[in-house]
Amino acid sequence: MDILCYVAFSSDPRGGNPAGVVLDSAGIDEATMAATAAEVGYSETAFAVPRPDGSLDIRYFSPQTEVPFCGHATIATAVAHASRHGVGRLLLHTKVGSVPVTTSTAPDGSVTATLVSVEPRTADLTDADLVELLAALRWSATDLDPALPPQVAYAGAWHPVIAAADRARLADLDYDMPALNALMARRGWTTIALVHRESDTVFHARNPFPPGGVVEDPATGAAAAALGGYLRANGLVAPPTVLTVHQGVDMGRPSLLTVGIPAAPSSGIEVTGTAVPLS
Predict the structure, then answer these.
(1) 237 and 185 Cβ atoms separated by less than 8 Å
(2) d(CA 170, CA 164)
(3) Taking a C-beta distance cutoff of 8 angstroms, is the pair 48, 70 a contact?
(4) Taking a C-beta distance cutoff of 8 angstroms, is the pair 6, 275 a contact?
(5) Is 246 in a helix, a strand, or coil?
(6) Residue 121 and residue 272: Cα distance in Å, rounded?
(7) What is the pLDDT of residues 96-120, one digit of tens each?
(8) Cβ of 99: how many Cβ atoms within 10 Å?
(9) Per-residue pLDDT tens for 246-275?
(10) What is the pTM of this model?
(11) What are the beta bridge partners of residue 154?
């Protein structure tokens, strides 16, 4: 099995979110995929199977579980594919639907990828779930930004969006991992999208990921897409618009995600980033 290792959402291997990529996993069964992802140890490893038309079937595994969709491993897969087959448009068939990705080469030779999520959705977060979630995070209701109401958002995977009123609250992440993991397992949440809004178009984010056996993701494309859908659905941005999301800074792996929010209510959210191989 040819396992490629890339960092997504950074041009520096010391930043971003590492992902494993297998560009041709034809004939590899689910148990082997799961075992391989656990051995690789990154928050996600993507397993692709080429179709005759040039598109890819793709599955994503964390060290502990399969997830329906993963943004950073999608970006890594697209850039890895472009390194072998050239830049352009690539269609990925995920468990949640088709996700087109477009790659391009910058003047400095780096490759950037833009994915377009499946149709985003939002759902209410019950008072009981919010109380339990805040307790697991060791946050209080006074830590929240009242302008960004807690909700659950989806753009391929479900993420509660919890906004901190100030950057210091976001920087101080010390949560109860077993308690949060139990709540997330019951509700089917993939990560928790903790955010702080610096300005109309600039956000800082952190994403606890206990269901995957990972304390925190340094860059989470699926959550960034969900955030974009949440902001549009709640009238908190004026689309079309583009957001900048800074993530991974507090854990020493700075990452940069660009989120494009089209005006059409049912349109997918665009998430753009670069990826580079790990030596």
Answers:
(1) no
(2) 6
(3) no
(4) yes
(5) strand
(6) 20
(7) 999 999 999 999 999 999 999 999 9
(8) 24
(9) 999 999 999 999 999 999 999 999 999 999
(10) 0.97
(11) 121, 158
Is residue 278 classed as helix, strand or coil in its secondary structure?
coil
Pair 155, 117: CB distance under 8 Å:
yes
Q: Give counts: helices (H), strands (E), the chain.
A: 6, 17
Nearest Cα residue to 97 out of 116, 110, 114: 116
CB atoms within 10 A of CB 105: 12
SS3 content of the chain, % helix, strand, coil (to 5): 25, 35, 35
Q: In Å, what is the CA distance from 117 to each residue of 69, 125, 136, 195, 262?
A: 9, 22, 29, 20, 12
Where are the strands (E) in the chain, listed by range? Answer: 4-8, 17-22, 44-50, 56-61, 66-67, 89-94, 97-105, 111-116, 121-124, 151-154, 158-163, 193-197, 202-209, 214-217, 241-247, 255-261, 270-277
Q: Which two tokens stand for residue 212?
A: 């995957």
Please identify which residue in the block is written with the tokens 């008072």: 127
